[in-house]
Amino acid sequence: MMEHTILLLQPIEKHDSRTWTDYNCVDDCLEGVCKVYEEFLKKTSPGSPSITYDITHLFTFIDRLNDLSVLVYDTETSLYTPHDKSWIKDRIFEFLRGHARGDQNSDDDDEEDDEDVLEVIDEFFVVNIC
């Protein structure tokens, strides 16, 4: 079942830095959070042909954001349920672990996913961005 999800992001204290993005499901939103971090890495390391990060770097980035939350639509109540950074990090961990184990559907694969290489070593995730 698709759970419409809205990502609310405020990277710095300035109110005009607030932004939001909507997604068809929670997994797409979690991938969106990872992409926000990857874009940040690309901007801060423009000359690097590839960038490697692990989940602890991603979580530190999330913690340093002024605000990050999601609203997930509940079809039973017809309401959006808010979730905080802690919930997002827990879901990202499960999302990445699922991808590392090959639990993702082949229908969800696209060319961008092929560029990211995900390894799992004792629950330690490493992502290479090409």
TrEMBL record:
It holds the Pfam family ER. It comes from the Eukaryota. InterPro entries: EHR_sf (IPR035912), ERH (IPR000781). Belongs to the E(R) family. This is Enhancer of rudimentary homolog. The lineage of its organism: Eukaryota, Metazoa, Ecdysozoa, Nematoda, Chromadorea.
